[in-house]
Every structure is written in structure tokens, then in C-alpha cells.
Q: What sequence folds into this?
């Protein structure tokens, strides 16, 4: 089993133990936050007289320890900027970031040790074998040789057979798995996955998610961005949607799906159906397979009212189905409103 690294790096050897803001093991404190972000802003300076780009405009976000948390948003919303700030790769303009209780400004080393990031891009040294790449990464994080779990990670990512192969001989899927392995070498409390399944085949996607679930069951907090909303719906306990550099919604996935008032009642008639007089606010879409799809607001209309209209018109019904909004509906409702 992967063990969480203490948060102290080898470079701490011989140094005075730095002041830790929180010494308690957070896995024992279920209510603790893995990430606490307050008033986070990032402005990229415009090149050659171009206006500045406000990528993050005051983000407040807390991510509970032990959760699988989804960070969603349209292209350019600011997700990568946020993740890169968490990873210590981009410097924030203003605000506070605490990772596993450590303030990024005051305890940069500890906050960096608490988080592992699997990036989107597949750049890696072609001359390193998976074993070599994992060892180099562990060295960068100052993980002592006695604490390295290279074989365990190779097993987890299914690259034991390729442990000594050159990275350039690995397939795209294998490289991606190696990126996951690299993010795990220092046994972080928090794992961030930036679009981990973009453009990968179904088999690899399923393997990645099985790994992620297992790591989460072992106590690791997972933060992921994905363009596959169905995937976020299935994987994430909670979701934040970012748009134009701000969090527009953050909620439990189930609560988010319950937010939309819209519902669709689908009726399959046995024969042709003439025009119907529908209750106000109800719209009818006649589908190619002959089904009648009635869209309505739960707050103003009931399925019973619609059924009443259909039956009163003498329609014989062979089947009925009800369609609920999915995350895509919620996402569109919350992000398609205003321009940048
Ligand atoms: N280095 C940079 N310099 C200037 N502007 C940048 C830089 N990086 C990002 N931006 C801008 O900041 C905004 C947010 O970008 P970011 O990459 O964080 O969004 P995103 O939500 O990750 O989008 P995507 O899903 O396309 O990766 C965009 O308008 C982008 O053009």
C-alpha cells in the first residue's frame, strides 16, 4: 500500500525541522480541508501592449480531504492556471493557498510535498526507462532510497514488464501511466489529474479510473479536471465549475444534478397524434422514433398534468419514460450565459 510521505524532503536533513503549521495527521480528521483557497487572483501581463489577462478573478474554494473533486469549466476558464498554482508552477497575483494545512507562501516545501500533479502534456526524457524516470522524480522530491516504492508504483501503473524499456519505445497510453506514476513517487496526500483521459482509449481510461478509485480508497484526495462530464458525474463526490476565472458553483454532484428544474417526460404512443393543447411552459418535441418528448419545469407542472392532456386527446400510450438533467445540462446552464 502507498504510504503518505511525511512532507519533509531530504534537503531537510541536517537542517532544523521547519515549523509545521499542522502536525496532526489529517487522515484522522475527516472534516479537514485538503485545499483551502481564498481570494485567489492571477493576472497574466499582456504582451506587446495587449491588455492584461485576468485568468483568475478571486477564487474561494475548499476541497475536503478524502474526496474525489472535479474541477470543470469551458476552455480558457482558468482551470490549468489554478492547477499550476497548486503545483507551484505558476505564481499567483494575490490570495492565499493552503495545501494540506500548509500555507504555500510560508511553507512552500511542505505544501509542495503534499501534492502530486499528473500533467496534461506527455513531455518526458526519451532516454529514461520507467524505473529511471521514477527514480529521478523521487530524487527531485528528496525521497530517501529506503522510502522509495518504485516496484509498487510500476505494478500500480501496469509497467512492470516495461520497467527497463526506453521511454521513447513506450506507447502514448504507457507514457500517460508513467506520468501518473511520477506524480505518486513522493506519496502525496493529494493527487491532481489534469485532463487524464483526454484522447485515451476506453481500456486505458478504465484502468486509470480503477487506479484513481483505489488510491482514493487508501485515503488520497483526488482533484481532477475533465472534459468528459459523464466521467465527472460518475467519479466525483463534489464538483466546482469555473467560468471566466470565478467559481460559479460548487456542490455535491448529486445536489448539482438536482438543481435543474427541467425535466422531460417521454411518451410512446401506439399511433399518430394530432396537435395537443399543452399547459403553459410545456414544450413538445416529436422525435424520429415517434416518441413525444415533453419538456417542463418541475416547479410549475407535474407529469400527471401532461399525461392528463395526452389521455384526454384519446392517445393510446405504449410506454413512458422520464429523463433527468445530467451534468452537461447543469454545465451549459451555468456557463453559457455571458461572454468573457
Ligand atoms: N502564460 C499565459 N500568458 C497569458 N495568458 C495566459 C497564459 N496562460 C493562460 N492564459 C490565459 O488565461 C486564461 C485561462 O487559461 P487556462 O489555461 O487557465 O484555462 P483552462 O480553463 O485551463 O482552459 P483549457 O481547458 O483550454 O486548458 C485564458 O484566457 C488563457 O488564454
A:
Amino acid at each position: 500500500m502507498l504510504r503518505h510521505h511525511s512532507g519533509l524532503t531530504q534537503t531537510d536533513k541536517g537542517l532544523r525541522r521547519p515549523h509545521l503549521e499542522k502536525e496532526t495527521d489529517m487522515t484522522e480528521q475527516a472534516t479537514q480541508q485538503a485545499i483551502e483557497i481564498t481570494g485567489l487572483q492571477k493576472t497574466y501581463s499582456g504582451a506587446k501592449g495587449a491588455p492584461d489577462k485576468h485568468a483568475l478573478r478571486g477564487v474561494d474554494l475548499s476541497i475536503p480531504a478524502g474526496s474525489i473533486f472535479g474541477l470543470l469549466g469551458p476552455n480558457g476558464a482558468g482551470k490549468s492556471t489554478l492547477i499550476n498554482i497548486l503545483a507551484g508552477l505558476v505564481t499567483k497575483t494575490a490570495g492565499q493557498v493552503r495545501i494540506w494545512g500548509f500555507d504555500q507562501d510560508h511553507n512552500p516545501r511542505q505544501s509542495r510535498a503534499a501534492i502530486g500533479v499528473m500533467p496534461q502534456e506527455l513531455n518526458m526524457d526519451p532516454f529514461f526507462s520507467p524505473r529511471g524516470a521514477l527514480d529521478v522524480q523521487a530524487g527531485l522530491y528528496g525521497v530517501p532510497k529506503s522510502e522509495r516504492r518504485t516496484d509498487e508504483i510500476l505494478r500500480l501503473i501496469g509497467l512492470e514488464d516495461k520497467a527497463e524499456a526506453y521511454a521513447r519505445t513506450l506507447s502514448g497510453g504507457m507514457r500517460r501511466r508513467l506520468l501518473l506514476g511520477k506524480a505518486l513517487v513522493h506519496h502525496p496526500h493529494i493527487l491532481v489529474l489534469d485532463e487524464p483521459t483526454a484522447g485515451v482509449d476506453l481500456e486505458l481510461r478504465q484502468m486509470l479510473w480503477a487506479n484513481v478509485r483505489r488510491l482514493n480508497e487508501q485515503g488520497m484526495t483526488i482533484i481532477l479536471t475533465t472534459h468528459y462530464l459523464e466521467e465527472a458525474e460518475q467519479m466525483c463526490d463534489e464538483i466546482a465549475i469555473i467560468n471566466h476565472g470565478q467559481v460559479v458553483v460548487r456542490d455535491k454532484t448529486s445536489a448539482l444534478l438536482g438543481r435543474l428544474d427541467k425535466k422531460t417526460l417521454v411518451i410512446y404512443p401506439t399511433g399518430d397524434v394530432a396537435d395537443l393543447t399543452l399547459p403553459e411552459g410545456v414544450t413538445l418535441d416529436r422525435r424520429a422514433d415517434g416518441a413525444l418528448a415533453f419538456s417542463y419545469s418541475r416547479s410549475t407542472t407535474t407529469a400527471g398534468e401532461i399525461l392528463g392532456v395526452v389521455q384526454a386527446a384519446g392517445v393510446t400510450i405504449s410506454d413512458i419514460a422520464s429523463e433527468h438533467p445530467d451534468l452537461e445540462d447543469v454545465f451549459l446552464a451555468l456557463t453559457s450565459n455571458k461572454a468573457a
